Amino acid sequence: MARRPGSFTSDAQPARSFWSRFAFSLLLAGAFALMLLGKADVLVVERFRTGVADVLAPVLEVLSRPAASVSDAVAAVRRFRDLRTENERLRVDNDRLERWQHVARRLEAENKALRALANFVHEPAAAFITARVIADAGGAFVRSAMINAGTDQGVRRGLAAVAGEGLVGGVVEAGAHHARILLITDLNSQIPVAVERTRDPAVLAGDNTRLPRLVYLPQNAQVLNGDRIVTSGHGGVYPAGLPIGVVTSIDDGTIKVSPYVDWNRLEYIRLLDYGLNGVVKPSSGQSSFTLMGPERSASGQLLGLGGR
Amino acid sequence: MRTTAVQRVDLWLRQATPIAFMVLLTILSTVPIGVPGYTAVVPAYTAMSAFYWAVFRPDLQPPFALFLVGVLQDVLVATPLGMSALTLMVVHGLAVTQRRAFLGKPFVLAWFGFVLIYALAAFLVWLLVSILALRPVGPEPAVFQYLVTVTLFPVVAWIFVRVHRHVVR
Q1: Which segments of chain A have a pLDDT < 70?
Q2: Reported ipTM exceeds the 0.90 cut
Q3: Can you tell me the distance from the alpha carbon of B26 to that of B74, in angstroms, rounded to the nearest whole number?
Q4: Smallest Cβ distance to B93: which of A24, A60, A139?
Q5: Rounded distance, CA A246 to CA A190, Å?
Q6: Which of B41, B57, B81 sits opposite A38 (nearest CB)?
Q7: Per-domain residue ranges for chain B?
Q8: Are residues A118 and A132 in the same domain?
Q9: With contact defined as beta carbons under 8 Å apart, do A192 and A179 qualify?
Q10: Which residues sit opposite A214 in a β-bridge?
Q11: A105 and A135: one domain?
Q12: Could you tell me the residue range of the domain that residue A104 belongs to?
């Protein structure tokens, strides 16, 4: 940039006059006011946000396609390179899984028989909605994803979102053609979970890092590295037993969980509709979420057990 | 000298380029590209844009347009409405008052200016997020994003220079 382009010396000097300074301050104040309004959960603000996102969803959808095909191509090259080792691994996996299949069949039969004996109340069957991730909004303070299905496709707030192996998060905003998923790694995500081996209940709290923490464990809980963490179904928002991840580090009472979801290949998300309404009220007239608000009753109940 | 309608439209389009380009950057920065860890540190392209045009062509970057782009970014990224708008205007405001220091000087100086000004803006964002969350949030992601942003600034600024020379003029 040795030779600077344009002729800026002859330009008008904008922020000099009183009027433009006044306008500038007014806009700054406006930005603050917007933040406060958003914080106060004004329904109009929420409608505005959903409306704008709905209008932009088709644009994002178009733009995310070439990006997806580029990352597909990269993945294809990588797969080709790893073909041999992959094959070997799969063969071993297959052997192991076949053994598991036998075990699972036997357990399923046993389970069925025992349920019949005990007159067990069946869990509702799940309906699926599969949608593509069209915006993977990141930045330093938010972990959320936007998908190309909305209320027109039957999406509503509170649905659990899974991708492949595990829980991704929950729907916190549903427009007509888009929905926003709050990822389990987000600062405001708190999900009732259980340690699969011991059935100890806990809350999985995101902290914007890749490894959410396990909090509110019972005093005498014995958690080990490698323990699987699943949803507990408490609060009636998420169904019980959805796999989330494994415990990877236990450090001074801080227990980190590594989610099963591959965040780098979050292309399609499946929304599970178990017909659970739980503590989430119908969205009309309900106070809305803010991704960054503290855990007030509404969002706290929506995403877990509530405030700290 | 009378200008024809075509010339006027042409001029208008050229002058709208900085803001239009910024809108494009806003949308592009949310597109999932599948690079590991990218979403956490996606650089603040809009802040770079706000800084560049505030220094070199502040007349083409009215604060009101910045405000709207910021709100758009807030909607897309799901940050609290008004936060990005505030950040962009702070970057713009600071850069405009200091622009004399960067004009006609080597590019390194402008880069240094961006490093300082964006540090202030990033700190402001962290502060606002912490206040809105009613607890201090971990600063690590913000620090990473800051480092990525200031490191990539020369690359993105190079594109701005091309746009400035050949499109805006």
Answers
A1: 1-16, 123-124, 138-139, 276-308
A2: no
A3: 10
A4: A24
A5: 17
A6: B81
A7: 5-168
A8: no
A9: no
A10: A204, A255
A11: no
A12: 82-122
